[in-house]
Write a structure and sequence with these properties.
By secondary structure, this protein is an alpha+beta fold. The chain contains 16 helices and 14 strands. Helices cover about 35% and strands about 20% of the residues. A hairpin with a 4-residue loop joins strand 7 and strand 8. The protein binds a DNA duplex (18 and 18 nucleotides) through helix 5, helix 10, strand 11, strand 13 and strand 14.
Amino acid sequence: MSKLEHPSSPLKAEDTDSFEAVFGLPLPAFKPHPQDGISRHDPSLGAPEAWPQTPGFKRRIAHLDMDAFYASVELLRYPQLKGLPVVIGGGKKSLLKQLNGVDPADWDANTPLHQFPQLKSYAGRGVITTATYAARSFGVGSAMGLMKAAQLCPQAYLLPVDFDQYRHYSQRFKEIILEICPVMQNTGVDEVYLDFTHVPGGQRENGLSMAKLIQRSIFQATGLTCSIGVAPNKLLAKMASEFNKPNGISILLEGDLQSRIWPLPCKKVNGIGPKADEKLKSLGILSIGDLATRSLDTLIASFGKKYGAWLYSVARGQDDRPLETHSDPVSMSRETTFERNLLVAKDRQELGEIFTRLCTQVSLDLQRKNLKGKTVGVKIKFDNFKTVTRDQTLEVAIDQAQDIRHTASQCLKRIDLTRRFRLLGVRVSSLEPKTLDAQDPQASGASRSRPVQANWLGES
DNA sequence: TCTGGGGTCCTAGGACCC
DNA sequence: TCTGGGGTCCTAGGACCC
């Protein structure tokens, strides 16, 4: 932190002069901050959608990733757990409550350690969502079953997920960022892409100054740390943000491709998952450098036209995707894994209640976002983990729970349910904004035309 | 006592239309 | 009477991401 240029050093002339030369405007949306004199974005003047591609400007794209976000937020609330192994788990709240008789709602910064449940006293389904770094050193991590984690680290404390809290901190750190760099792409609660290219000071030290400023501003405002990678594009920035975790910054230049990217295993690329990685390995391609030795034709022959061509460009560090500063939701869904596998013939009542609850939740989610959708679908995961989906598209978009439930039960009828299953899900897609015109007769059309008949659960 | 929940995007076949 | 060829929409499944 000793070499910080911000906030004390004045803005250099080149930062603004070139901006003015390009836009013919004196930095309309930026003005010096009264405290440090650094130009900050003024939200009241509106944010640009994206920077223009400008010859002479080095594209400087950052990827910012909060460190162990959920777990770190929990540690802010329960500092007595700091330094100890803690996992945030998908266990049901009621289960956690049973473990030691203390309701998580009653925890606070003074709760003694013995009132937090530990993995060793947990029995049931569920996986880890996030683990603190102390817990990760035992080999436990995201997506691992809680029971398996209990074997590796029985003394780890187990906390329930609290999405409201995470969303709150998510908004907070993104507000901080937007004050400094207004071109931001949301890619989840705990990470964003940023475009420093034309932000005043964004080119300084190839983006290091700006990354430091953002990192420190977030820490001062929230007490949370993050890691930032800055590179010529999103592909490389994403990888760079992992180089120096936690609380690190990595700056990647064009010339660093061979030395810093090629040695990495293919799996590190955002978009190469377990399946593709297996296939690459079977072809003798272990590292990104290996990938770069293969011809375009070879890769297309093995992976298809689109994915093969994408792999070819990935190996060369090429990626010209712009940041997407807006996105409309495509679908909304709710699903749940039961505490035990259920059978329609035996568990009709329980399934009916779960089904209704899922439809109601999706309906409320849609209404909260002022959306409705034309396609309704269901998902079943059987006891053997085979997943099937069915969906149906309606003439009119809907958002009411009973309409969703009616269409979803039509879908369920098309699935053979003589086998036990572990998960039920309900989804609405083909979303469109809800018209605010209350007079619209179509708004309740689906409900009106709904035939009254027994559905798959034998209810009316 | 294996294996969550909420998403996005892609593919591929069939229906249907011009 | 051989295989015409676009285009779009719908559906099911699957890979991948956080």
